[in-house]
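> Could you send the Protein-glutamate methylesterase/protein-glutamine glutaminase prediction when you get a chance?

Sure thing. Input:
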Amino acid sequence: MNKTKVLIVDDSSVIRGLLTEVISSDPELEVVGEAKDPYVAREQIKKLNPDVITLDVEMPKMDGITFLSNLMRLRPMPVIMLSTLTTKGADITLEALELGAVDFIAKPSFEKLLANRYAFKDLLLEKIKSAVKVDQKSFQLSSAISSVKSDKHTTLSFAGCKRANHIVAIGSSTGGTDALRQLIHQLPVNCPPVVIAQHIPPKFSERFATRLNGHVAVTVQEARHGQKLKEGNVYVAPGDKHLQVVHKNGALFSVLDDSEPVNRHKPSVDVLFDSLEPIAANVQAVLLTGMGQDGAAAMARLKNHGARTMIQNKATSLIWGMPGAAYALNAHTSEHALQDIAQEVLAYAALTREEMKGALNA
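Output:
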């Protein structure tokens, strides 16, 4: 079996050595080269033709963003960013995802990396193996991003919810920040409240919400404990808390939970979806692109309790892991291309309770 060829681009020789050791420990992967800066990386790509690149976001001579932008324009290939857990690192990483990076992994300090080497190893290997399955040329990632940046997405019209406390819950992971951006761009100011569990670290969730909020019609914010959930608002789970929804005194409220990860994730989509079971008849649950199975089992439970459940189709998913797992469980009531999901959500929200029952039974 041909091994997946990996090129490591990082200005730290220590980090390059650790990454080489971790990646080379997997029999399916091979480190074919190392580069201390983008200029060396450019020559290595021509010479070694790697399948995947790990790229440090902050490097001398040419920053990672400039290099990535040139790479995606001239020779698109799967790139995993190594990012510091800082506000600056979060902004750079989110920009990298907008430019076409497949995924990112938080780059801990050398001391923390040594202490948590096995957890870091498992996550990195999983991300590399997922990234290599992405054919970015056929996926046309760059054109999708250009569409978002040029504001070609039209905010959809919506007559308003016909049912009180109607809510939309979305789960996503790999490729999710871009998918969410495209979906949320279409939502109008009177849309039902939207709650999101995106697999993302602390600081990144807040920066993602802030960056998106300035470019859409709705209000996007990081969820806070005890908030009343309102129409025209999108609530993103903090990167180190589970987000749940409770119904009390005739209204919906957010609850942040600091319990253990579920499905290795915190926030977990399963936790969010399971919290909605008591009001399932008023729920639209959506699973977008992402690796793994988080959200699939809970989506099946929501469907059994009368919720409308939708998955992103394989053709428009960067990674059809989470929606694919839901598909395998028959947890979905419908399957849609990413560009159609916002319209589907709004059309269903505009139905009366009687019309809604007919739509689910159709």
